[in-house]
# Entry
Amino acid sequence: MYVCICRQITDTQIREVCSTGTSRIADLRDQLGLATECGKCGKHALSIISEFKNAAPFVNAAPA
# Structure
């Protein structure tokens, strides 16, 4: 789904950047150009960032 219509940035692109450890909207602005036009996408982008902040780290419970 498009989050930023002005720059054609999708939620998938934002999640890919967040998966590398990005946790600031400023980082998304620098890397993707998010929220550099009208700024209406910022609120939704922040909710995606918070998904990554609140997610529990993956623990492999399978025996080695």
The mean pLDDT is 89. The helical segments are 11-18, 25-32, 42-54.
